[in-house]
């Protein structure tokens, strides 16, 4: 298909965007609506030529954008916010179809796009100055050039913007690759951006894993920002080493929540459930392990069960549901494996059924709690990325902190307690990039987000996160 100019948005036709041109392809794929199992619209699979052309266009667009005054870059981002606000309903509907999210949660993600960009426009790029009798040393930061963003399927739009906004603010060009499971909103927002930003500055190449792999080895891309699984993150880092690309990896987690004995059980238990089951558990920082003090274990678990039984699971079209389906068949089968393993080992299902009922219309799973499985159980040791979570009692604080930290991951964690000061002391001892006291995991653009251990390398968002898209540039000026 020959390139065409960007004009008005058609939310039922999707293209790659290269140098402000909409490109189709002979090779296509499509997403699946996880609430119905029905195929969605065709999406072109980008070729190596598409990627090469995108990199060339980005390299040409970069110098002028780098030299654009910082305030002007902010104004351009805010201008895009105004444009995006004209299309929030269409983006919300599109996100519901590709992700299966209940509409109110899809709307929250859509609303976060403008909030994320607007917050970043309040930031300044840090700089330092040191002076003595001999010299003045200026530490400044300069953009990297062309950045690549590889996007996951669980929050396809906000995680696209989470890479695009800081990259553009700091003076870079960026090419994103949406997930083949949820390609639609990412492709469409980049198409919309062509109405505001110069050609070649923001581009999108969708398709399969091969395009992502080609981005990691492309000599014209200076940085890869990847959000996804640990296994794939390791491959990204290995491939990027061939050109010494900068990498930011935000990977999986196995977040622990520690419940101290002085909590308000009726208030806190439903919140802990939300932390585990938000977005049907398909959140890298969802609560994956829940440790409840033995003195309140029975009562707290009972309240969790009571709340879980009230949770409505269904299609975005079915009304006011709290949870939607698992997003894709691959993940659906993986989550079912945790149910099968827990049943085979004879673990106690506090709520939920060991057998997932077949549903020809979508990938639905009822939220499920496993009561006190052993430490070496699969449900404790691995990340399900679905609506199933284990609980365990604890008695000794030192021991439960050690248990919470006994994992190769370290993305997020929570501590719940009536004594906030004590809970905060516990939080400081948890080996995770983001720890939440008296809240389930709610990452915010106001703070850097990244993981410890195998949950990632580096971090993005917030003032500190801007530096992930920049090189330090130190000027030493000696006095005559």
From TrEMBL:
Enzyme class label: oxidoreductase
Enzyme Commission designation: 1.2.1.3
Family: Belongs to the aldehyde dehydrogenase family.
Matching InterPro entries: Ald_DH/histidinol_DH (IPR016161), Ald_DH_C (IPR016163), Ald_DH_CS_CYS (IPR016160), Ald_DH_CS_GLU (IPR029510), Ald_DH_N (IPR016162), Aldehyde_DH_dom (IPR015590), LUC3-like (IPR044086)
Species the sequence originates in: Lophiotrema nucula
Keywords: Oxidoreductase
Active site (catalytic residues): 250
Protein name, entry field: aldehyde dehydrogenase (NAD(+))
């Amino acid at each position: 298909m020959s390139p065409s100019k960007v004009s008005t948005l058609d939310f039922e036709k999707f293209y790659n965007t290269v140098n402000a041109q909409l490109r189709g392809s002979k090779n296509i794929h499509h997403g699946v609506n996880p609430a119905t199992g029905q195929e969605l619209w065709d999406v072109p699979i980008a070729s190596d030529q598409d990627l090469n052309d995108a990199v060339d266009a980005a390299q040409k667009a970069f110098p002028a954008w780098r030299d654009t005054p910082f305030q002007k870059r902010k104004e351009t981002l805010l201008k895009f916010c105004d444009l995006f606000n004209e299309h929030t309903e269409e983006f919300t509907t599109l996100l519901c179809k590709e992700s299966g999210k209940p509409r109110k949660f899809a709307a929250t993600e859509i609303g976060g796009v403008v909030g994320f960009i607007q917050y970043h426009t309040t930031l300044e790029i840090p700089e330092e100055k040191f002076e003595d009798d001999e010299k003045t040393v200026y530490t400044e930061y300069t953009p990297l050039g062309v950045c690549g963003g590889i996007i996951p399927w669980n929050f396809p739009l906000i995680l696209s913007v989470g890479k695009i906004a800081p990259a553009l603010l700091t003076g870079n060009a960026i090419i994103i690759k949406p997930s083949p499971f949820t390609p639609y909103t990412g492709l469409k927002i980049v198409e919309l951006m062509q109405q505001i930003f110069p050609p070649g500055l923001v581009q999108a190449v969708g398709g399969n894993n091969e395009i992502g792999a080609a981005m990691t080895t492309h000599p014209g891309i200076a940085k890869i920002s990847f959000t996804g699984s640990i296994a794939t993150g390791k491959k990204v880092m290995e491939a990027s080493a061939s050109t010494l690309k900068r990498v930011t990896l935000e990977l999986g987690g196995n977040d622990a929540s520690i419940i101290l004995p002085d909590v308000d059980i009726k208030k806190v238990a439903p919140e802990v459930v939300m932390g585990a089951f938000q977005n049907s558990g398909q959140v890298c920082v969802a609560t994956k392990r829940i440790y409840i003090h033995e003195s309140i274990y029975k009562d707290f678990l009972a309240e969790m069960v009571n709340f879980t039984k009230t949770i409505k699971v269904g299609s975005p079209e079915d009304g006011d549901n709290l949870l939607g389906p698992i997003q894709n068949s691959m993940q659906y089968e993986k989550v079912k494996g945790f149910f099968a393993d827990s049943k085979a080992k004879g673990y106690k299902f506090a709520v939920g059924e060991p057998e997932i009922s077949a549903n020809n219309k979508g990938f639905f799973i009822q939220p499920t709690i496993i009561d006190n499985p052993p430490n070496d159980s699969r449900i404790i040791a691995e990340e399900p990325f679905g609506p199933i979570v284990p609980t365990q009692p604890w008695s000794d604080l030192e021991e439960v902190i050690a248990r919470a930290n006994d994992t190769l991951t370290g993305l997020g964690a929570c501590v719940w307690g009536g004594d906030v000061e004590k809970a905060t002391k516990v939080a400081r001892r948890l080996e995770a990039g983001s720890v939440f006291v008296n809240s389930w995991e709610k990452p915010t653009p106001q703070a850097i987000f990244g993981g410890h251990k195998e949950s990632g390398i580096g971090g993005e968002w917030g003032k500190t996160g801007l530096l992930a898209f920049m090189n330090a540039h130190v000027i030493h000026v000696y006095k005559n």
